[in-house]
Amino acid sequence: MKKFINEPKQFVDEMLEGILLAHPDQLAFAAGDRRCIVRAGSPIKGKVGIATGGGSGHLPLFLGYVGQGMLDGCSVGGVFQSPSAEQMHNVTRAISGGAGVLYIYGNYGGDIMNFDMARDMAAMDEILVEQVVGAEDVASAPKGQEGKRRGVAGIFFLYKCAGAMADTLAPLSEVKRIAEKAGANVRTMGVALSPNIVPEVGTPQFSLGENEMEIGMGIHGEPGIRRGPLKKVDAIVEEMMGPVLSDLPFPSGSEVAVLINGLGATPKEELYLIYRKVGLILKEKKISVFHVYVGEFATSLEMAGASISLLKLDDELKKLLARPARTAFFEQVQLQA
Q1: What average pLDDT score do residues 77-94 get?
Q2: Could you tell me the residue ranges of all domains in the chain?
Q3: CA distance 231 to 249
Q4: What's the topology of domain 8-184?
Q5: Mind giving me the DSSP string for 115-158?
Q6: 58 part of the active site
Q7: Three-state DSSP class for residue 50
């Protein structure tokens, strides 16, 4: 293991201390716990609060999207570990402005259990909580079993659209509806080229041969759908785009937003090579592109690899996606919808 760390057990807490020191104008913490990250100035009276949470090791997911036009709070767990129900509850209380709170989080067992418990605890405080679970990874379960799919980089679109709706002071029912609508219209597929190393473990989570890749691997190293020799980038993209395009589906004449996400150790040059082929495929299928996001949006420590997410748009989602947002890790000006 070769990392810039002190003691592995202090990795998460010292990382959070650094983030809070770097962004005091945007981020704070609740209940005396740095793992309970909230938007500076929380709560915002009359606004639906949006909370997420999950394990560390995925920056900018999850806490990186706390800020204007997106999320209001995030509970932070250990590396690839769920935060506690108490931490989720503390975040909920800190961001509750009287209009209810929406939880948006990935489809992982520990997160589901602890967010359910946090919702029950919030009910005792008379805070109304609704939940939407992101589950858009087409590699993790077949069509017809969408409820078993993992939530990966495409959850960014749920944060963006629901956060934009909440900023209009829409009621909780409408913010939830938009999060569900975005979730129903996004699909993702990933590929891994190398493993990662959890600091407290100190050894790679899995092994891939020098010239191997794994199509469909999850952001925690979960098994994909095929392992084999590394191909040229155009062939990799073709293999990934087929299941994504056929799953929803995305018919000719559709309009989409595209997210090309690096998993932690993939240069942007390579991500743009991926988008080059994605763009050519979409053009060939007469699918128009409204906006493209390229960069690191949901990583897996130092894993080399990438994922492709497509969000099918209608006028409503397009206008919400276009609204400005500003967080410590993400900034967007108003787009022309």
Answers
A1: 98
A2: 8-184, 186-314
A3: 26
A4: Rossmann fold (3.40.50)
A5: HHHHHHHHHHTT--EEEEEE--BTTSS-TT-GGGPPP-TTHHHH
A6: yes
A7: strand
What are the phi and psi torsion angles at 73 (to 5°)?
-165, 160
The candidate with the shortest Cα–Cα distance to 100, out of 77, 132, 78, is 132
Q: For residue 57, what are the contacts with CB-CB under 8 A and spacing of at least 6?
A: 79, 80, 196, 198, 299, 300, 301
Third-level CATH fold of 186-314 = Hypothetical Protein Tm841; Chain: A;domain 3 (3.30.1180)
pLDDT score, position 264: 97
Catalytic member of 23, 89, 220, 291: 220
Q: Do domains 8-184 and 186-314 have the same CATH topology?
A: no
Q: Which two tokens stand for residue 224?
A: 């994909």
Is 89 among the catalytic positions?
no
Whether the pLDDT of residue 337 is over 90: the answer is: no
Q: How many helices (H) and strands (E) does the chain have?
A: 8, 15
Got the DSSP string for 162-228?
HHHHHHTT--HHHHHHHHHHHHHTEEEEEEESS--B-TTT-SBSS---TTEEEET--TT----SEEE
Tokens 């994909």 correspond to: 224
| Mean pLDDT rounded to a whole number for the chain | 97
Distances (CA, A) of 285 to 28, 188, 190, 207, 254: 46, 18, 21, 36, 9
Comparing CA positions, the residue from 178, 151, 173, 152 lying closest to residue 70 is: 178
